[in-house]
Amino acid sequence: MSQRTLVLLKPDAVRRGLMGEIIGRIERKANWSITALELRTLDRATLEQHYGEHEGKPFYEPLVAFMESGPTAVMVVEGERVVEGVRALAGPTDPIAAAPGSIRGDFGTIVRENLVHASDSAESADREIKLFFPGRG
């Protein structure tokens, strides 16, 4: 069954020159395609909506500040089991716990700056795509 998911290549991925490597890994997966892709600096209002469930937690303000710190590649990826597939490709948030071969396992350095966001469910993907690409909802 085809799905859509939102993927963010965070400011650390852009700053470190890893966009091509990460996008290439996504493109090489059979039956997945990138159907929208933009490079933009995210504003606080968008980030507050995106990370709203974390407001008040100790990591919230540093996370929003990090995400405002530079350009982010924002994309929609479509394909078979793409929600769970991109999350597996990304690996766990903690780069030490992430397996070699995953994006975070190969390139991650610290938990807070973890290179990539991938929607955690089809419902989250729909909400996030509408937030970042209002015309594609």
Automatic annotation (TrEMBL):
ATP binds at residues 10, 59, 87, 93, 104, 114. Residues 2-137 form the Nucleoside diphosphate kinase-like domain. CDD domains: NDPk_I (cd04413). SMART domains: NDK. It catalyses: a 2'-deoxyribonucleoside 5'-diphosphate + ATP = a 2'-deoxyribonucleoside 5'-triphosphate + ADP; a ribonucleoside 5'-diphosphate + ATP = a ribonucleoside 5'-triphosphate + ADP. Its EC number is 2.7.4.6. One of its GO terms (molecular function) is kinase activity. It is an enzyme of class 2 (transferase). Its cofactor is Mg(2+). The keyword Plastid does not apply. It holds the Pfam family NDK. It is found in: Cytoplasm. The active site is at 117 (pros-phosphohistidine intermediate). SUPFAM superfamilies: Nucleoside diphosphate kinase, NDK. Keywords: ATP-binding, Cytoplasm, Kinase, Magnesium, Metal-binding, Nucleotide metabolism, Nucleotide-binding, Phosphoprotein, Transferase. Homotetramer. Major role in the synthesis of nucleoside triphosphates other than ATP. The ATP gamma phosphate is transferred to the NDP beta phosphate via a ping-pong mechanism, using a phosphorylated active-site intermediate. HAMAP family: NDP_kinase. Belongs to the NDK family. This is Nucleoside diphosphate kinase. The gene is ndk.
